Amino acid sequence: MNFEAMLPWLVGVGGGGGLLALVKAIMEVVGKVRAGVSAREGKRRVDLVEQRDAAVLKAQLAEERANRYRDERDVADQVALASRRNEQRAREHAAELRIELMERAGMRREELPPWPEMEDTIPRSALPNRKDDQ
Asked: Which of 46, 64, 45, 68 shows the shortest CA–CA distance to 56?
């Protein structure tokens, strides 16, 4: 068989395959147009929805983390306030006991035992100065 005899056959097979691909592409475009979305716009819309969902999730996680930190800070503030109030109460009670000891025993201030060391307490200068605990 020579090439000239095969040429119409090759053109017919190639053209049929090309025609099939063309019909398939046209059908895809028609389907998307009927759905109201172009090919590029559909992918873009899906990408935007995914980005929006990711941003919403990220914002929710950030808000939860901020709420956790705020709750922890509130608890720490309450503990610090209670600690300062307890320290003040202990100092006042100790002062009253010293006065009572001096009155009952007839001791002078110099004869009283020294104050105990308080190494485990937080120095007052390290505590935040708050008006609500005064």
From this structure: 64
